[in-house]
Structure formats: C-alpha cells, structure tokens
Amino acid sequence: MAHQWQGVIAEYIDRLPFAESDPVVTLREGGTPLVYSRALSEQTGAEVYVKVEGMNPTGSFKDRGMTTAISKVLQTDDKIVACASTGNTSASAAAYAVAAGLECAVILPAGKIAAGKLAQAIMHGAKLVAVDGNFDDCLNIVRELTESYPVALVNSVNPYRLQGQKTASFEIVDELGDAPDIHILPVGNAGNISAYWMGYMEYAGKTTPASIDDSATRLEARATKVPQMWGFQAWNAAPLVLGHPIEAPETLATAIRIGNPASWDYAIDARDTSGGFIDRVTDEEILEAQSLLAAQTGVFVEPASAASIAGLLKTSAAGKVPEGAKIVCTVTGNGLKDTATALAPKGELSFDPIAPTIDAAVAALNL
Ligand code: AN7
What we know:
The protein is an alpha/beta fold.
C-alpha cells in the first residue's frame, strides 16, 4: 500500500524533541505540496516552487507547530491552552485542542480577523475574547495570563512551536534533493522564518537538533548547503525593516498585521547568517501577487501568504533575482479563509441569471 503521511512528529521524530512513547496529538499535518510554478519561473528567470501550506488540516502552516506544542501540553497538568492570534494560530490551536481533549482560549484583535478563521475557532468550540487593540496587545495579555494561571501558552514563543514548523524545510530538502538557493517567506511575528532557518541548518548538519537524547548528534546531514532567507513584511507593518517596533501596524493582510514580532532576534539571525534580507511590500503588490498566483499557477492563497510572491516579483523587477536560481516561496495559508479581501478588488460581481437553455448559456459564455 502507498505510504500514508503520518503527521510531522511521526515522520521526523528523530529530529524532534519527542520519544516514541510520548503522547502525540496530530491531524496528519505536513506533507504539503511543493508545486513548480511555470509562470513565476518565466517571469523571474529562476526555477520557482511554492510550498502550499494552505493544504494543512486547518488551512495554514500553524498546524506543524500546533501538533508539537499541544502534544507537549499533554505531558503537563494544564487543561487549557491559550493564544493570541491574527486568526490562523487560533484556528489551529482550537482544532488541536479538540483532538487533545483540552479547552482552548483565544485572544483576538476585534474586527481584524478574516471570517473563515473566526468560523474555525467558533466551530472548534474555542472561547473567544475580542480585544480593543492589535495583535501585540493580545500577545501581552495572553503572556501574563499564562504566567499566573494553569494555562499553556501555544503562541510561537512556546519553543515547541518552532520545532514543529522547522519540518517544512525538511520536506523541501527531501523533495528537491538539496536545499534551494533562496527561500522566501511572509513575515509577521517572525516565528516561521526562524523555524525554517533552524530546519535548514539542522538538515545541513550545521547545528544539532534539540532531541530528547544524544541520538540526534549521530544524524546524517541531508543537505549540502543552506538557502538565503528572504522575508517580506507588509508596508505599514514592517518593524523588522524599519528596525523598531510599530505602534499601530496596518495592512489588509491581517494575518501579518503585527508591530512587535516575538521572534525578532531569531529572524535577524536567519537574515544575516544566511546572507538574505527582509524587505516590505505594499497591500497593492500583495493583492496583485495573490491574483497572479491564483490565475497563473492555480494556487489560491490568503493575502499574507502572497507577500512572499509579491516580494519575489518586486525583487525580480529590480533585477536582483539570480538567473536560474532555485527558489522556494512558502505560501502560508489557504485563500478560502478570506474570500472577502480577495474579491474586493474585483469590483461588483453580478451574475444575472439566464434562461435555463443551452443557447442562453452559449451566448452568455461568448463561445
Ligand atoms: C497566513 O495566527 O501570527 O512570521 O496569530 O497566518 O511566523 O508570524 C499568523 C501569522 C504568515 C506570519 N502567513 O508568520 C497568528 C499569526 C499567515 C499567517 C504569517 C501568519 P510568522
């Protein structure tokens, strides 16, 4: 029988801080498609792939880190998990809490969560609290909350989150046979770019994975090199580009509407050690890239995810994409989570009904 993907802990347990006997909470996350994009390759003169993280069980990359973080909670006495979120973390935490038999509390910035993500948290039975503030305010609240109450914090400041998320790099190397030359990501709280960098470094044998015993030190390197890490923030939510936190971040890519990234230092290390950079793209560039990816590659992502594509196109237009380079862009979340933002630039959509005849259909389709 063909191999059925088991989830990231089972697939990569020798490189994760888990023992075979540890409890595992999984929805079979990971194993996501790495899709070659002919359109992006032709436009940039590079060899471009997209890692489609919207194919995870709750529709975003967060599931990779939630399986590890929430599995670890089962080794404690905590019965409640909590997170601040711009939407995807809460959707994922809520689902994995259900799978673990735990309760979930989510603290969200009021009015700034895409409808699909809110629906997920509600359907998975999470307790929702909307805050009159932004994500950074929410994270401050939940950090204090988890310090004073028997509640486990599952934001990416929880180190087990990044441990799970690093597995995306492993999958990419396993599929391509080596690391790409360049890896491009959207950056919000900066956990994911940090996790990918950790994964690439470990797979190339340059660092040793955190393991529950010393067996990890005997692991073979699977890659001969590490990629340059390129990150892209939204124009008015770009603290890492400006070099200081932003009080009032603003972008229609609400997932990355973050002014003070928790993994600031890790992201800067990934950028500098890899010889990459972190830049910013406008909301218009994000929407255009989202549209192009859907129309020319067949992958519908949410706005924040398209920041990686917008960044690639912007860098290419500036003549700074090396000819023939192998490039992977992570597209972090599924477009179905936020159809309102995707459709807004398309103008008024009117589907006037036609008569139920073949002739009327042919005429309407201009065939
Ligand atoms: C689709 O859900 O921070 O740089 O609270 O949902 O690791 O924060 C989401 C972030 C990119 C940025 N793309 O990743 C949350 C949250 C999507 C996202 C990011 C997020 P990080």
